[in-house]
Amino acid sequence: MAKAANLGFPRIGARRELKRALDAHWAGRLSAAELAAEAAGLRARHWQAQKAAGIDVIPSNDFSLYDHVLDTTAMLGAVPARFGAAGERVSPETCFAMARGTAEAPAMEMTKWFDTNYHYIVPEIAHGQQFQLASPKPVEEFLEAQALGVHTRPVLLGPVTWAALGKARETGVDPLAAVPAILPIYEQVLLRLAAAGADWVQIDEPILVTDLSDDQRRALASAYGRLGRAGPKVMLATYFGGLGDNLALALGLPVAGLHLDLVRDPAQLGRVLAAGTDKVLSLGLIDGRNVWRADLSAAHAMAEAAARLHGGDRIEIAPSCSLLHVPVDLDAEETLEADLREWLAFAHQKLAEVATLARAIRGEDAAEAFRASDSAKAARAASRRIHDPAVAARAAGVTAADLCRASVFCDRQHAQAQSLPLPLFPTTTIGSFPQTAEVRHARAEHRRGTLDDAGYEAFLKAETAACIRRQEALGLDMLVHGEFERNDMVEYFGERLAGFAFTRMGWVQSYGSRCVKPPLIFGDVSRPEPMTVDWARFAQSLTDRPVKGMLTGPVTILQWSFVRDDQPRSETCRQIALAIRDEVADLEGAGVRAIQIDEPALREGLPLRRAEREAYLSWAVDSFRLAASPVRDETQIHTHMCYSEFNDIMPAIAALDADVISIEASRSDMELLRVFGEVGYPNAIGPGIWDIHSPRVPPLAEMTALLARAAEVIPAERLWVNPDCGLKTRGWPEVEASLKTLVAAAQGLRQQALAAE
Question: What's the whole-model pTM score?
C-alpha cells in the first residue's frame, strides 16, 4: 500500500519559537537546559502534527538548533582546531561558536544551500583531519520520538554531499578525500539506529542532481556499497532537480529506496520506470520550495501510473524536498484575501496534500479534496487580478538599447570622479544600520495604529538624521540613510509594487535564528509610485557627503519571493526590473549621485546543471542592466553580493557593468577576491573586511591584513572599503567600534599609497 512520507519539517515553529529561544539564549536570558527544553517541545509538536496529518513516514533528526550541515560536521567531530573541541563530544555551544565566531576564533564560512536562500556553515577540511563520532544526535532524536509513540525515519546528510560542500583550508587538501575516513562513523550511526529500532533511514545526497566529477561518482559508489548494507534500509533522497545523467548511477547503488524530485523534473519518473528497479520509489510530487497549492489531479495521474507500473506497495508519496523552505501553517493567515488564500499551501497544508494523494492511490475516498483542488486551479487561472496588459506590453517592448549605459566604465569613472570627489580607498557601508529595539517597537506601534503616520515619520527622520551624524563622525566617505523605514530588503519593495501579497506569519528560516518572510508574487508587477525617493532626498539634505540611494535588485526580489508558477520566471524578473528602472530614474532626478542595486541572490539562482546556466545568466544579467541603465555617466551604480561562490559566473558579474561591486570576503580570508583578480575584473570592487554575521569586533590588524590582501589584487583607484553586508542585525556599540577600525584601516592604506608616490 502506498505510504505518505515527509522528508523534513520547518524547525522554527509556527510563531518562530526557535528564533526567540536562540536569541534569548545568546543574550544570556535562557539557559542551555531551557533552550534544550524549548527545542524538545518543538520537535514533539512537529512529530505529533505530522502523525495527525496522516503521514506514515515521519522524519527525525531533521531538526537543528542552527544548521543541519553544521550538525553533520559536529557528528563527524570535524571541529576546526581554533574552537578547541578536539576529543570531546561536540556541544551546541561549540556549534554556535563555529557558526557565529568568538572573540578569539573567527566563524566558519557560510554560503547558500544549493539554489536556495537557506545558508549553511561550510565544513572545513584540514590536512590530516581526524574524525570521530562526536555527536549521537541522530540516535538521540530517534529515541526521543519513540518515547512519544512516534516511529520515525531518521535523516542524515550524505557523506559525499557533506564532503563536496566542504572546503580545504590548506593547499593540496581535497575535501572529497575525507569520504573513506568518515564512512566508519556513518556506519556506527547506522548500527546504533538499527539497534534502537530504526528500520529505515533517509540519507540525503542532493549532489546527485548536479554535474558530478568522476571522483564524486566513485565516492558515491564506494560509500553506498558500504552504507546500503550497514544497518537500516536506506532511502536515498535526491532533490532540487532531476538525476539526468546520474540516473543509472543512482539506480545502481545498493540502497532500498530512491526519492525523486518530480516537481523540478517530472519527466524523470518515466525514465526511472522504463529502466526498471526493485527499489521503493519516493515520489516528490508536492512542491517543497513554493507555496502554491498543488494540482492534485495532475499529481495523482503521475502517482497512479507509478503504482500501476511499479506496484502500489513500492511507492511513497512525498514533497519534492524538505518542507524547511516553506512557511509552517496557512491557517495562521487570517488577513489574506479569500481568493488568494485558496491558491496557497504551507507546510501543514502540503502534508495534507501528500496524505490525500496516498489515500487516493490506496483506493480510499479523497474526492472532496480533489474537487477543491480543481476549483482553486480554475479560479486562479481565470482571476483578473493576475494579468495587466499594460505591464505585458511594456515588457515585450524592451530593446537592446534599454540594457546599456551610455558610455563604457572608464569614461563613466572619469565623469564620476568629477561628480563624486572621493579619496583613495573610499569607505562606505552596504546599506542598513542597526534595527534597534526602539526602531522595532515604533514599527510595531505604527502597525497597530497606536503611533500615527506623522509621529512615525518624525521618529524615522530623527533616526535617519542621527545615523547620518554617526557616519560623519566616524569618517565614512559615502553615506547611507540607514533604512530604518524598511522591515526587510525585499518585503519593503514588494509592499509598494503591484502584483505582490504578504503574509503575517509566513516565516522561513534563512540561517540560525535569522528568519525571512518572503512576499508572494501572484500577478504582473509594476510600480504605482516612487518608493524610496523621499527618504533619499531627505538624507542627502542632511549632509554634504554623498548618500547612496538603496534599492533591491530584480533578481533578488524574484529569488527571495515565492514566485508565481504560471509564467516563466524570466518574464516576472523583467517586470520587476522595469519597476526598479523607474525608481532609479527618479532617484537620479532627485539629485542622488550614487545608487546601489543589491543583487546578493544572483549566484543563488544559478541552475545546478551547467547546461542550463547560460540561459539563466542571460536573462538575469539583462534584468539588472535594464534596471540600472537609464542614468547619466556621472551617476554611480553600485551593487552588492554576499555568501556566494563567484568563480563560475565571473563573466556574468562583469557583464552587469556596475560601477562598484561590494562582496562578502572576510570569512573566506579574501579567497573570493582571487578570482576577480585572475579574470581581470574591470570595474571597482569593495571586498568586505568585517564579517557582520559574527558578534565580534575585529582588531585593526585583522582588518588591515585583509585590506592589504585586497590591495594586492585590485588597483588602488578601483578599491573600496566596506563591511561584508548590511548592519541591521548588529548593535550600535559593535557597529561604531568596528566601523571606526574599518576607517582606520582604510586611512592607513591611503597614507601608505600616498607615501609611495
Answer: 0.90
